[in-house]
Amino acid sequence: MSFQAWFESLENPGRRWPLTDVIYRDPDSGSLLDVVHDVDALKARSADEWKALFDSRYRRSAWPYGSGVWGKKEWVYPQIADESIVSLFEGGENLFWADRLGQQLGLDDLWIKQCGNNQTGSFKDLGMTVLVSAVREMIRQGKEIRAVACASTGDTSAALSAYCAAAGLKAIVFLPKNKISTAQLIQPLANGAEVIALETDFDGCMEIVQKVTESHGIYLANSMNPLRLEGQKTVAIEIVQQFDWSPVDFVIVPGGNLGNIYAFAKGFQLLLDTGILKRAPRLVCAQAEHANPLYRAYLNGFESFEPIVAGPTQASAIRIGNPVSYPRAVRALRAFDGIVEQASEDELANASARADRTGLFNCPHTGVALAALQKLVDRGVIQRHHRVVVISTAHGLKFVEHKVGYHSAELPEVTPRYRNVPHDLPADIDHVMRTLDRLI
Ligand SMILES: *Cc1c(COP(=O)(O)O)cnc(C)c1O
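Above: query sequence and pyridoxal-5'-phosphate SMILES. Below: predicted holo structure tokens.
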């Protein structure tokens, strides 16, 4: 059985380009590209056969198929040679039953997919393994690629740097100066990437990297490049697998450049096409109020789209005013009965801190998704019996500045309702006992 995937124009499908071509847009229309699979070939295998194959590989050590991404290789990049694959055993993250948080919100079936539990601490690894592997495949086929570059709000650059370091490739990352966390800055430096800090925002970095990668043998690693989304879509497939291939009702994803929401749609669509899922979930995209161009477009039924200048937000990885994948997000939301919600700084920080009180340590972007969840429960859209999965996109330990700011009550626009501070005491047993009596 031979499975195939290729690039096709998102807006004008028909013409095909091989996945080893260096191409980011349809040269005729300027449209974004999509990776399209030969779905008929995939359908020739039964749903039960696919499930059995994926289950036999899941989290095993047989390289590279134990990876959450490469365990689904036939659905991701079927033709790539195994020797080209650069994998850090990404995926397979735990799906956390948020029982106590669910009870507080009035939900019986609330789950959090911990995508921050990856090599570099965010879901970006899932896409980067595919992109960097594709670069190795291109080089093997004789393409001259001297380096791989991206613009980033912090997590993409960490992932690119780690996968390039693992592959022995040169990484160049463009970051908005002073707008990312300390952990996110030190990650690419530690991995030996060239870090270019620009006096601009993410959208400004994105413009520069697109020009840099037009020539010079430098390959573009942003999610404008649809190879990334092929890896990211495996999260949708894996969630369903973790529920023993049973359906979910709502998936809530924090969105910035809007590639990931489309990746979820692609993953669920393949599950529907192959007959593994009989029922589609509703997709919810959650944005920070200071970076909400998709939310604004949603309010007018996606009639028109206006880029904005994104303001400062604790959810710095989604501080994007002109999302490249806007047309993809609209498709995803239309196909999956989508909803867009937004969260203020106060809402996102308190939603995140409240969840921490139930055993999590989640990032501010997850806070945006949790605040959106709260709003949908309050409106009666999400109800007690619904199976809900919140996508936690990064690990909270990458955002300790945010946590420190929250608990020291120093975040702008935030009144910390779950603040907790250390008790400074002398090393004296009476003092300690008196204090403990008061506290417990
Ligand atoms: C990249 C990122 C997002 C947003 O994903 P998009 O595909 O850009 O919408 C959300 N959260 C975190 C932590 C990220 O790194």
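DSSP finds 17 helices and 13 strands in the chain.
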